[in-house]
Every structure is written in structure tokens, then in C-alpha cells.
Write a structure and sequence with these properties.
Elements: H1 8-68, H2 74-78, E1 90-99, E2 112-114, E3 124-138, E4 143-156, E5 160-164, E6 168-170, E7 176-178, E8 181-184, E9 188-190, E10 197-200, E11 204-206, E12 210-211, E13 229-233, E14 246-248, H3 272-279, E15 284-286, H4 324-329, H5 331-334, E16 337-342, E17 357-358, E18 373-374, E19 385-386, E20 390-392, E21 399-401, E22 414-416, E23 435-436, E24 452-454, E25 459-465, E26 471-473, H6 475-479, E27 511-512, E28 514-516, E29 541-542, E30 578-580, E31 582-584, H7 586-589, E32 609-616, H8 617-625, E33 644-651, H9 731-734, H10 751-755, E34 765-770, H11 781-785, E35 793-798, E36 802-805, E37 829-834, E38 837-840, H12 848-851, E39 865-868, E40 870-875, E41 903-904, E42 912-917, E43 919-924, E44 944-949, E45 965-977
Parallel strand pairs: 5-8, 5-43, 6-9, 7-10, 8-11, 9-12, 10-13, 11-15, 16-33, 32-34, 33-35, 34-36, 35-37, 36-38, 37-40, 38-41, 39-42, 40-43, 42-44
Antiparallel strand pairs: 1-3, 2-3, 3-4, 4-45, 13-14, 16-25, 17-25, 18-19, 20-24, 21-22, 23-29, 25-26, 27-32, 28-30, 31-32
């Protein structure tokens, strides 16, 4: 048996070895195969992620390109295809981005549609559809193709009921009910006065945080009248009508547990994502400034905005160094009408032109206005002329010879004239005994020592763009339509004027610069008002008694400039025929909300004395339509591109070069030293206020330069002489002192006598819109004739503050206030885009703002007024409530909130302010820098606010011309392509 079993073990061993070898070989083959498969899988994954990253890179490049170029060409988009990222081992077989219309066909214009995704879903925007294709190939031959579709959306800002580039505050207001979306690129402070109700009707988005526990100045809501009911919809139209889906947000339901800020000064609310996304179904969302914890809100910025170029540039004059995006965004470049004023015509864009006109009685390069401006008036000879306003040291004791020019050679047959007679001598003639009433040929501008000077001065340019794109000067044409009015602004246009409230001086004037000299400030002018005869026949004469000019303000041997009060520029409280249009802005003039008491009840400050250029909006419409009496030029102004007109206004008279910006005039007033929260008096201290916690800027640094720009005080108040003060107390002399320049002190003792009548020397010039009631705001005549429901519109853009006086684009007869439809043929899509916007009621009087008590709002009672206009303007920054202020004025340190974004200067106590439009804050005010102040009521008393969002702005056809637009790139989705490719 043993012999027969020999060799079995060997055989078994060999068989086992063979089996194990097979297993080993199989295992090795499996490992190798799995390795190869895994490697290929890995490479496929790498290729997938490379393609995905490339798509994201392409999207980022697309977004950046649209942020730098307002209106790119198809080639600009397609050029992004050359910006392939470098990744080792990757070859881009496809890297293509293009509009759906291709790289050569023009981009679709007016391709408006609703945004399909993201936080701005359902807003209308101009849509540019874009496709992106990427194929990433690895060295091992693995390829992944991916395609993305996107919308580049240009979102018009006036689609929002409220928009702000900085914090938005709803706080401590009476009942407020405002439709329209709300968005802020900062924090959203949500509150309302105790026992009051704030109702929102649409989505709220904040790129920062939602704050419930505090006011914007840091005060606690629970202690400062801010715990009323705030209703927010939980579904579309949830707070409309019977409020079917409308919920009150609790005081503890903000996205932060306390104060906001960047970074927030309190912790994130852990319950916020559920509150925002579930409880409110994303009807209120935040972004936490792009950090963890936000619920989806985006930052919406103008295309050109970066760390050095800021949103206020849209209202500034253009510069040669402008980027494409900035140039395309400036309202100056969008406008078809320019109205520009400057101290030197070389400062106008493009330099001086022969057609620029000096606002003085001198021979211009074009028209000779040494004997006044010819202003044709119906019923009067064509030779009638009107002088530009001049001041004089000749006061009182005038007599009028009624027997004709011959009697001017004697002193006989003279009769007393009324104190307010407006046609006092146009040439003061300190070296003449008798002065003709009518203009004289020479000398029109005697040496300064003779006691006359200009009250307006500066250079004017008015031009328009025709349909061919050419700019045509019309300065002379506008001036010769007239430039003066009565003691109150007109309320209806010249061709449709009622007996009361119109312009009795120059009925067809568009641009109004002066008014008759109401010397005793009683609101009426005795004697004839109007243009002067060009000849001397029958004119009579004056026998003036010259008054001594005031003493030199500062005697020295080196100061040669007349701006510093040397004898060569005498001051006076009198004028010849005309006064400038001056009024007092108490918000600008008073550093604190303090009422002046006797004996200073009529005192004011140089900082608050504003000089206005008025635009008669109704007459502008008649000019644009070519109405009889207004010439045939207006219809040549292009209106098709903007579906209406944009008028750009800039008055840089009195503005000084900014020493912190290459010593050039930038559009800033140079009056940033205006907060000074450390002191109750608010006197300028010459240094920037500290940057508060949670902020990135000093509250005084409104132009975001990092420097205090206080240069504007240096030439303030040079036309005013404080008759009751010693020479050294005069504001002109005060600027020579070592202390920081103070435009608030010393006060002008008699605002009525001094400030009302005199030349405004510094950067204190604004635009006033008058005669703009329903039917007077320009609309397209061709669309009116065709009976279209929307008939175009009119936008005023200004780097100066704008004051809207009286009804604008609406009135008591407008059916919209009772829920009715627009008045066809009368309602314009209107907007004002300016440094700041102040609302003046139908009962505002410039005179009363200076003759009563300028620091008591109750002396300026308002009347019910109606406004239908989108407003884009600046405001001041929020800053911490100072410990010296009383609890009564707990709003100090805020920007006033949404309810005070429209600025007021009157007592609206119990009076309705009816406003329909859109409230947009794109920047901080850099010209009118006065802080919000309330509630001692030196500046204003609040109105009963009837604020409504204009639903016309929710559609593209209803938007005003020149509406600024934000860029937003929304990705609609992407997919991997599995089809076989042929390249």
C-alpha cells in the first residue's frame, strides 16, 4: 500500500500550487484591471471637476465684464472665450461663451423679460441670453463636456419700492403702508412706532442683515418707540386686501440678535434660516455680506462701482479718464439736454465755447448783453430788454422825474417813487448825479470802487442733442425766452396761464435766475414789473444819494483777491432792479436742531443760504413740443432713444478745487465737517469723526476718500455783510482765523435784509423744479396723438441738490389717489436723480424762509401737495447716538429712515403729503451734507405720509428715461453632454 501511494503528495502539492498560482494570477489581473478602471474613473472625475470649474470661471468672467461695461458688444462677450484657465494636464477642446444670437449679430435691444431664478426672480430686466460650453480633455484621453445657460439681467432700479446701497431704516414712524420690493446692500432695520403698523406688500432683501432690536444709531427698539406691528407677506400678495398670508415679525426674529454692522455687532440668530426660508417662504432674506448664515440675498451694484469709483459718479460731469462702464452710466452722457453753470467756461466739458454766456451785463463773444437781454413779450416792443441782477452801494432817496429825458439835466419836477419800485437804476453811477431809468450804453461795469457788482455771474451753457447725435447750443435762445419771474414761482405754463400764480415778468421763461427786488419783504412789488425799454425816450431819471461802502473787512498788503473782502469788492444790503432767488435751507444751515431765541430770531448761517436756478417744467414742455411763442427748436431734441428726455443740470459756481483730489473741482461742496458728534454745538473741528464700530467709514467721509474735505467753507458768505457785527466778526474775516473754517458762525443777524438779497459766493447752489403739475411734465407728443396709455417721460439728473416746489406730475384731480387709472395724455414717467431731493409744498415761499424765524418750522406751514415721480438721491450716514443728545431727538444719528428720505423744510403737521413713485438711495450726499435732525422742529414737522409705489415702474414701458440699472448674472442650470463630439 505504501509503495502504491508514493508520489501522491507531490502531485497534490503541484495541483495546489497550480491552483494558488491561478488565484494569484487572477487576483493580479483583477487588481490591475481595477487599477486601470479606477484610474480612468479618477481621470474622468478630474476632467468633470475641471470642466465644472471652467464653467464657473467663465461665469465669473462674464459677470465681471458686465460690471465694467454698461453696454457690451457681442464681440466683448465672445472675447471671454480666449481667457482659458491654465490647469496642468488639461487641454480645452471647447471653451466657448457667446450670446445666443452669436458673436456678430447685435445684442437684442429692449429684450425685456422676467428674471427666472435667484433672489431677483420675477423682476423685469433687459435680458441677454448667454450659452457657455466647455470640454476638458485629460492626458489619458478622458473628456468631459459641459454646457450652461445663463441670463445677464440689467435690472432697472426704479422697479424697487425702496432701494439703498447702504443701510435702510424703517423705524419709529407713524403708520406706513408701502408696496414694491425693498432691497438694501447694507442692513435692513425693521420697526415702526409703538401702537403703529408698518405693512410690506412685496419681497424684502438685505445683502447685510435684518435688524429688529435696534435703531440704526444703536438705540434699543424697546426703549425708543420702535415696537409697533411689522407685517410681512408669507406668500405673493399676502398682505394685500384682507391680508390672507400676512404675518407680524417678532422683535426677536431678526437675522442678528442685536445691532447690525459690517461685521455685525451681535451674533447670528440660529433660528433665522427657518424664519426666513420656511416661515416667510423667502419673502424676507439676507446675505450676511456673503458670509455663512445668509439666506440668499445678493449685492446689487452699478456696473462701474469698485473700491475707488463710487455710485455718486453717475450724477457728476464726465472726465477724460472715465472707464467704459462709468462713461456709459453717467447721466450726463445719457441726457439730451445739458444745463451747465461754472465760474470759468474752461471748466465745462470740452472747454469753453463761443456760445457760452456770462450772466452779467457784458459783451459776450456771441450776443452783446451790455444793455440787457432782449426778451420778446406779447404786447411789448421787441426792443424790451432785461438786465442781469446787479448790486449797488446806492441806497434810498431816489426820485423819479416824470417829464422825460430832458429833465434829467436838472433836478426839477421830481416825484417820490415807491420803495419797492423794481426798475431802479441799472447802472448805479456813483460818479453821476442823475441816472436814467432805462439801460445806458456805458459804463456798464464801472470800477468796483464805484459800488456795483454782479449778483448772479458765472457762465451758462445750454445745449441739446439732435437725432443725428450732434450737440447744438441754445443758451441764447433760452435766455431770450426770459430768465426772470415775479416774487413767487409760476404754477402753470405761459401759454395756459391763469390770472393768478403765473409769471408776470417773463411768461415763457424756461430757466429762471432772478426776481424783482422786494426791498421791504412784504411779498409784493410796487410799480411796473417787466422788461426795460432799450432807448431813453420818455424814460425819466433817478436822483440817487450814494451811500458809503462798508469798511474794509481785513486790511493788509498781500490779500489781492476780492473774495476775501478787500475794498475792491464792496458789500451792501441793496440791489438795483433784481434780487437773486435765495432761500434758507435749515437742515443745511443749522448744525443742530435748535431754535434761535431773541434777539437772534431772524438770524441764519451762510451754510444754509441757498441760491436757486429754477426750471419752469411746463414751459420746457411747450418748448419741446414747439408751441407757438416758444420757437421751433425744441422738437429737434432726440426723444426716441430714451423714450422721452433726460435733462442734466450742474451748477459749479462758487465751488472750489478739492485739494485732496489733484486740486480740481470734483462736484463736492467741500463741506464734510458737518457731524462732529462729540460736541453738542456741532462746531467744525477740522478732523474726521472717528469710524464707529461695525462701520467702514467716518460719518463725515461722504465721498469715501478717507480725508476730511472741508475746503468749501473758505469762500462761504462773501456776499453778506453782517451790519450789526464788528468787522472782525464778519464771516468774510472769520475765515482768516486760525480755527477751522466755520460756515455756521458767526451768524448773519438779519437773514431777511442780508442773506435774502445778496450774492451767494460758495458752493450753495441748487436746482428748483417749478410749474410741474399734472399735464406740465414733458411727454412725447407723438404718443399723445396716438392715444397710447404710456407716453414717455422726463428725468432730471443733477449733481446739485434739487428742490421740487409744488405739485409735480400730479395734483388733486389725479384719479390715481382714489384708485383710478392714469390720465391719458398727461401723466409722464418721471424721475429726479440728484445729490439730494427736498420736497417743498404748494405753500412754500422763499421769502418766508428768510423773513420770519428761519429756525422755527412752524413759521413755514405746508399745504397738501401731490408728487408722482421716482427719486434717486443721497442721504447722510448713520452714526451712534451721542450721549449729550436728549431722548426727544432720538432720531439724531440716523439718516432719517425711509419715511424721511424725502427731505422737508416746512411744518407739515397734520397735512397730507401724497407721493407715488420709487425711493432710491444710491450714494451719500456730497453737496448737501447737513445731517438729519429732529425733533425740536427747527427744520420741519413731519407730514401725514401717503406713500405709494408706482406700479407703472414694474414694467419696462413705464420706466422713466435714464433709469440706472444693476447687472445680475443668473445661471439657469448646466448639464453634462454625453453625445459623441466630432472634434
Amino acid at each position: 500500500m505504501r509503495l502504491t501511494s508514493q508520489g501522491f503528495t507531490l502531485i497534490a502539492t503541484l495541483l495546489l500550487l497550480l491552483l494558488l498560482s491561478g488565484i494569484a494570477i487572477g487576483l493580479m489581473m483583477m487588481v490591475n484591471t481595477e487599477g486601470k478602471v479606477g484610474g480612468a474613473d479618477l481621470q474622468n472625475n478630474v476632467a468633470y471637476h475641471n470642466a465644472e470649474g471652467a464653467i464657473e470661471n467663465m461665469t465669473s468672467d462674464l459677470s465681471a465684464m458686465f460690471k465694467s461695461v454698461q453696454s457690451p458688444q457681442p464681440g466683448d462677450i465672445c472675447a471671454l472665450s480666449s481667457k482659458q484657465p491654465y490647469i496642468a494636464g488639461v487641454t480645452w477642446k471647447d471653451y466657448d461663451v457667446r450670446p445666443t444670437t452669436g458673436c456678430t449679430a447685435p445684442l437684442p435691444k429692449n429684450n425685456y423679460g422676467q428674471i427666472q431664478s435667484g433672489p431677483n426672480k420675477d423682476l423685469y430686466a433687459q435680458i441677454v441670453p448667454v450659452t457657455m460650453l466647455v470640454t476638458a480633455a485629460q492626458t489619458g484621453g478622458q473628456e468631459v463636456s459641459m454646457m450652461r445657460t445663463a441670463q445677464v439681467a440689467l435690472i432697472p432700479v426704479f422697479q424697487f419700492g425702496v432701494f439703498s446701497d447702504s443701510d435702510v431704516g424703517f423705524y419709529a414712524s407713524p403708520n406706513l403702508n408701502f408696496a414694491g420690493r425693498v432691497h438694501t446692500n447694507g442692513d435692513l432695520y425693521v420697526g415702526v412706532a409703538n401702537s403703529a403698523q408698518l405693512t410690506f406688500h412685496d419681497k424684502l432683501t438685505a445683502f447685510g442683515n435684518v435688524v429688529r432690536q435696534n435703531l440704526p444709531n444703536g438705540l434699543a427698539s424697546s426703549s425708543y418707540n420702535n415696537t409697533g406691528t411689522v407685517l410681512i407677506p408669507t406668500a405673493s400678495q399676502g398682505c394685500d386686501g384682507a391680508k390672507p398670508a400676512c404675518r407680524a415679525i417678532a422683535l426677536t426674529e431678526g437675522s442678528v440678535t442685536g445691532m447690525g454692522g459690517k461685521p455685525p455687532q451681535s451674533s447670528q440668530n440660529a433660528s433665522w434660516p427657518s424664519i426666513s426660508l420656511s416661515t416667510y417662504n423667502s419673502k424676507i432674506i439676507d446675505g450676511n455680506y456673503g458670509n455663512t448664515g445668509g439666506t440668499g440675498a445678493k449685492n446689487l451694484a452699478l456696473p462701474f462701482v469698485n473700491g475707488t469709483t463710487f455710485p455718486f459718479e453717475i450724477i457728476r460731469r464726465p472726465q477724460p479718464t472715465d472707464s467704459v462702464g462709468l462713461s456709459q452710466s453717467r447721466e450726463y452722457n445719457l441726457a439730451q439736454i445739458h444745463v451747465l453753470l461754472a465760474d470759468d467756461p474752461a471748466e465745462f466739458p470740452g472747454g469753453a465755447q463761443p456760445t457760452d454766456v456770462r450772466l452779467a451785463n457784458v459783451a459776450n463773444p456771441g450776443p452783446d448783453y451790455t444793455r440787457g437781454v432782449p426778451v420778446p413779450i406779447a404786447g411789448l416792443p421787441a426792443t424790451r430788454r432785461t438786465y442781469f441782477a446787479e448790486g449797488s452801494t446806492v441806497v434810498g432817496l431816489f426820485n423819479r422825474d416824470t417829464t422825460g429825458i430832458a429833465a434829467c439835466l436838472t433836478n426839477a419836477n421830481q416825484a417820490a417813487i415807491p420803495l419797492d419800485w423794481p426798475n431802479q437804476p441799472a447802472a448805479a453811477g456813483a460818479n453821476q448825479t442823475l441816472v436814467p431809468i432805462a439801460p445806458v450804453a456805458a459804463p456798464l461795469l464801472p470800477p468796483a470802487g464805484s459800488g456795483t457788482w454782479n449778483l448772479l455771474d458765472g457762465y451758462l451753457r445750454v445745449e441739446y442733442r439732435n437725432t443725428a447725435g450732434d450737440w447744438i447750443p441754445v443758451t441764447r435762445e433760452w435766455l431770450e425766452l426770459g430768465f426772470a419771474r415775479g416774487t413767487t414761482p409760476p404754477t402753470l405754463s405761459g401759454n395756459n396761464a391763469p390770472a393768478v400764480g403765473t409769471n408776470p415778468v417773463h411768461p415763457n421763461a424756461i430757466l429762471i435766475l432772478q426776481q424783482p427786488a422786494d426791498r421791504n419783504a412784504n411779498g409784493t412789488v410796487n410799480g411796473m414789473v417787466g422788461a426795460q425799454a432799450a432807448d431813453l425816450a420818455g424814460a425819466g431819471c433817478m436822483n440817487p444819494t450814494p451811500a458809503p461802502r462798508p469798511a474794509e473787512l481785513q486790511t493788509d498788503a498781500t490779500t489781492a483777491s476780492v473774495l476775501y473782502g478787500d475794498f475792491s469788492q464792496a458789500s451792501s444790503v441793496t440791489r438795483t432792479n433784481w434780487y437773486p432767488i435765495n432761500f434758507y435751507d435749515a437742515r443745511e444751515g443749522e448744525p443742530r436742531d435748535i431754535k434761535q431765541i431773541a434777539p437772534n430770531t431772524n438770524s441764519c448761517t451762510a451754510n444754509g443760504v441757498m441760491n436757486a436756478v429754477e426750471i419752469d417744467v411746463g414751459n420746457l414742455k411747450q418748448w419741446l413740443w414747439g408751441t407757438a411763442g416758444f420757437g421751433a427748436i425744441g422738437p429737434n431734441v432726440d426723444f426716441a432713444v430714451q423714450n422721452g428726455w433726460v435733462l442734466y443740470f450742474s451748477d459749479r459756481r462758487g465751488m472750489l478745487p478739492n485739494p485732496n483730489a489733484a486740486n480740481v473741482k470734483t462736484g463736492d461742496s467741500g463741506l464734510e465737517d458737518s457731524i462732529n458728534r462729540a460736541t453738542a454745538a456741532g462746531a467744525p473741528d477740522g478732523v474726521l469723526d472717528p469710524i464707529p464700530a461695525g462701520k467702514t467709514l467716518s460719518p463725515e467721509d461722504v465721498n469715501q476718500s478717507g480725508l476730511l474735505d472741508s475746503f468749501g467753507a473758505k469762500n462761504m458768505g462773501l456776499g453778506f455783510y453782517n451790519t450789526a457785527a464788528p468787522n472782525i466778526g464778519n464771516i468774510n474775516a472769520a475765515i482768516l482765523a486760525a480755527a477751522p473754517d466755520n460756515p455756521y458762525s458767526p451768524r448773519i443777524n438779519t437773514c431777511s435784509t442780508t442773506a435774502r438779497k445778496n450774492w451767494v459766493s460758495g458752493a450753495r447752489h441748487g436746482l428748483k423744479l417749478v410749474d410741474g403739475a399734472l399735464g406740465n411734465v414733458p411727454v412725447r407728443k407723438d404718443l399723445v396723438t396716438a392715444a397710447k396709455p404710456l407716453i414717455g417721460g422726463f428725468t432730471v439728473a443733477s449733481e446739485n441738490p434739487v428742490y421740487i416746489q409744488g405739485n409735480y406730475n400730479s395734483d388733486a384731480t389725479d384719479p390715481i389717489w382714489a384708485g383710478g387709472n392714469d390720465v391719458i395724455s398727461k401723466h409722464a414717467n418721471a424721475a429726479v436723480i440728484a445729490d439730494a431731493v427736498t420736497i417743498l409744498s404748494n405753500q412754500w415761499y422763499d421769502r418766508i424762509s428768510m423773513t420770519a424765524t428761519p429756525t422755527v418750522a412752524d413759521t413755514r406751514p405746508a399745504a397738501t401737495t401731490y408728487y408722482r415721480v421716482a427719486i434717486a438721491a443721497g442721504k447722510n450716514m448713520n452714526f451712534p447716538f451721542p450721549n449729550w443728545e436728549s431722548g426727544t431727538n432720538f432720531g439724531f444719528g440716523t439718516d432719517g429712515g425711509v419715511h424721511n428720505f424725502l427731505r422737508f423744510l416746512e411744518s407739515w403737521n397734520g397735512v397730507n403729503l401724497n407721493y407715488e413713485g420709487s425711493l432710491v438711495s444710491l450714494y451719500y450726499s456730497t453737496y448737501n451734507t447737513g445731517a438729519f435732525k429732529c425733533c425740536t422742529y427747527a427744520v420741519y414737522r413731519p407730514p401725514v405720509r401717503n406713500y405709494v409705489f408706482d406700479p407703472d415702474f414694474a414694467t419696462p414701458e413705464g420706466l422713466p428715461p435714464g433709469t440706472p440699472a444693476f447687472k445680475d448674472v443668473d445661471t439657469l442650470g448646466y448639464r453634462q453632454l454625453f453625445a459623441v463630439r466630432d472634434k
